[in-house]
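worker-03 picked up job from queue 'complexes'. Input manifest follows; three sequence lines, order preserved.
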Amino acid sequence: MTSVPPTTPVQRVAAACRLMHEAQGPLPVNTLIAATGCSSRQLQRDFADVLDTTPRTYGRSVRTTLARHRLAGATRVTDAIYDAGYGSVRAFYEEAAQRLGMSPRDYANGAPHHVLLWSITDTDIGTVMAVAAPQGLCSTGIGEPAELMERVKREFPAAILLRDDGAMTDVMSALVHLAAGRSAPDLPLHVQGTAFQARVWSALKEIPEGDTRTYAEVAQSINAPSSARAVANACGANPTAIVVPCHRVVRTDGSLGGYYWGIEIKRDLLQREATP
DNA sequence: ACTGTCTGTGCTT
DNA sequence: AAGCACAGACAGT
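worker-03 finished. Artifact:
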C-alpha cells in the first residue's frame, strides 16, 4: 500500500503534496523530507522544476483553497476560517483574504497544478482506468487505454498525472470487484458537480447492488419529481462510473436508457449484478 | 547529471 | 528578534 521512498522528482513532489493535502495546509520542509527521502534542498529544487513553485507556497495554496470551498457552504465565516486551519481570524485575513480575491497572475503563481495519481486494470467488463486525488477518487472510465488516457488529459488539463499502481492497489481491486458485479468497500470520492448533481449521485449510491431504479424514481427520491430528464443528464455526467452506480438507473418502460460508456457495458454490468 | 552541504538573504511570525 | 524558507555556489558521486 504505502510505497517505498519516492525516487524521481515527480514522485517526491507528489508525496509531499499528498502530505500537505492530508494536513490541509503547509508543513515544515523538514517534515516533508521524512516522506521523500531526500534533502530539503533537493525538495525545494523538485518543487521548482515540477510545479514551478515552492513547498511552502503550495501548502498555503492547499489551505486557502480549502478555505474557499468551506466559505461557500459555511453558515458562520469564523467557523470556516478555523476549520480551514487558521489559528486566528486575523491570520486568515492577513494571509488568505487577498488570495481569495487575487488577480489571475497571483492565482497562477499561488495555485499550482494538482498532482493526480492514476492506475489502470483489466476487469470483467473491460479495461478500467481510475484517477485519484489525495482526498479520494476523481474519475473512472471504461474502454481502450489510449482513449481513456486522452480523456483524462482533457478532463484534467492542468494536472500532473502520475501513474502509481502501488498507491492505488486498494482502489483498483475494489473496481475489479464492482465490475464483476460483486460488492466492494466504499471508496472515498473527490468529485465536483453542481448541487443538483451531487444530490443525484448520492441518491444513486443508495440503490442496492442487483437492483435498479427508474429515472423518475430517482427524481422522486431527491424531491424533484419533475426532474427525471435532469436526473438522466446527471447520470450521464457521473465522473465515477461503477463506483456511483449510474448503470442501475433505467427507463420506466423497462428499456435500459443510455450509458456514457456504451449500452453494452451497462447491460453487462446489470447482468453480472443480477446473478451473483 | 543529479544530489547534499553550506551559506547569505529576506520572509514570516 | 528569532526562526525558517529559499536559492546560489560548490563539491561529491
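worker-03 released lock.
Residues 96-113 of chain A have pLDDT under 50 and may be disordered.
The first helix of chain A runs from residue 9 to 23.
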